[in-house]
Amino acid sequence: MCALDRRQFLKGSLAAGAFVSLSAAGVRETRAANETINIAIIGMGGRGGEHLKQFSSLESVNIAAVVDPDEARTGNALKNAPNAKAYTDLRKMLEDPNIDAVTIAACNHWHCLAAIWAMEAGKDVYVEKPLSHSQWEGRQVVNAARKYNRIVQIGTQQRSSPIQEEAKRFLHEEQGLGKIQCVQVCRYGVRSSIGKRSKPLPIPEGVDYDLWLGPAQDEELYRNKFHYDWHWDWNTGSGEMGNWGVHVLDDVRNVVFQDSVKLPSQIMAGGGRVVWNDAGDTPNVHFAYFDTGEIPTYIGLSNLPAEPGDKKGLNYRGTTSGYVVQCEGGRYNGRRGGGDAYDKNGKKIREFRGSSGTSHALNFIEAVRKGDNSDLKAEVSVGHDSTGWCNLANIGFRCGEDFNSEVIQDVTLPNDAARKVWDDLLTQMEQHLGAHGYKMSDSEIRLSPMLAHNPETERFTGDHAEKANSFLKRKYRKGFEVPEIS
């Protein structure tokens, strides 16, 4: 069977709706170890450049195409990919039957549509986090992976670090710190204002803006820079929650819950975009509570310095980007590439050190060669669920109303330790905002009601459900609609 015929066959094949091994389904062929895998990279910004480095360093992998609506970016990429062909429109690239797989490092709002189009064209997919810009479209990517029997890896590369397996063994098999009581997740990293123009930002020369927008709405931009700062615009980005929150929440889903909790059953979120008065609309201070059924989980994010004039951001018990697992016998401070266990008295009793997941690209390529997704470290369904926690936290913020301390009492916690950590987070947020001249009661600060969520249907229920559900699916521009996949 020739390559094109094989792809057409795979495109028409169906797999079970659950996560299954594609090789077990008998619909994929194994490739020879030295057979060249032709890769196309979609999105040639900073992350796309990293994709180029990582995949081009792998044996028998050829960067065959680079894709970006900004011609300057594809031009620069060709300097490091001499065998590649440059494309402005990813649809043209997908017509090439010699492309075996794509990696997607475009803006968040493009991730799902690009992934689905690629699978429909018979390509395997490596897509950066967050998987989705909205929860509904993420589900369509999972459905497409099953329908078209494709290998789909999410770029939460820490999943490929042996550190996570060591931490899981320590916490669960060895019971090194006893029963887990709660988890505090942190992403405290200082950023700066994106500015606020009085006139719309001119689109840079050489950028096909219609293609850059794709599924997003055509809105005028008032930030100072065209690239990267799209992260802080709901139309194209997911804020810090989707940018870094997905990494640390994915760590917790893996290490603490061992992926047993797909999505939370209740969410409460608050925060605001303060100090900067810029063109961004995502929060630069954000906190949330997730009800997982047993182990309460909280997250705090801030892009502000701890205090005005300070160069460093906040931290929680020594953690800035990571998570603190509070246990009956102490705590585990986890982060990318490492972790430390402490006893009840704060004495360090064990260290975990290793890579941050540098073999993640290789893990994807090996799965493509085998035609088997069962060994993927971050298979699409896993990535969808981890991204979902971030999508839900963002929905909580967007459903927020004036801060009401009485709403906080809706959080019912199973133990004193969980209550203390939750209170500590709220106190930290209050003091942090206070240092910058804000009160929780100020109009800039929002707090959602307790939102009930059904993890099976992936929809909100009960009071406030109508408003919350309105954020589960975005409106798409004509010609760039994410299709519903059944």
How does this model look, in words?
With 486 residues, the protein is an alpha/beta fold. It has 13 helices and 18 strands. Strands 7, 8, 9, 10, 11, 12, 13, 14, 15, 16, 17 and 18 form a twelve-stranded mixed beta sheet that branches. It has a six-stranded parallel beta sheet with strand order 3-2-1-4-5-6, sandwiched between helices. The protein is globular. Mean pLDDT is 94; it is low at 1-19.
Briefly say what this structure is.
This protein is of the alpha/beta class and 486 residues long. It contains 13 helices and 18 strands.
Which descriptors would you attach to this protein?
about 30% helix, 18 strands, alpha/beta, 12-stranded mixed beta sheet, about 475 residues
Spans with pLDDT under 50 lasting ≥5 residues? 1-19
Overall morphology: globular
Q: How does the helix and strand content classify structurally?
A: alpha/beta
* CA-atom Rg in angstroms: 22 Å
Q: Give the oligomeric state.
A: single chain
Question: How many DSSP helices?
Answer: 13
Percent helix among the residues? 25-40%
Number of strands: 18
Percent strand: 15-25%
The average pLDDT value, as a whole number, equals 94
Distance between the termini: 28 Å
Element layout with pairings:
Layout: H1 3-11, E1 37-42, H2 46-56, E2 61-67, H3 71-78, E3 85-87, H4 90-94, E4 101-104, H5 111-120, E5 124-127, H6 135-147, E6 152-154, H7 162-173, E7 180-188, H8 209-213, H9 239-255, E8 266-272, E9 285-291, E10 297-302, E11 321-327, E12 330-335, E13 338-343, E14 348-353, H10 360-370, H11 380-398, E15 401-402, H12 416-435, E16 446-447, E17 451-454, E18 459-461, H13 465-469
Parallel strand pairs: 1-2, 1-4, 2-3, 4-5, 5-6, 7-10
Antiparallel strand pairs: 7-11, 8-9, 8-16, 8-17, 9-10, 11-12, 12-13, 13-14, 15-16, 17-18
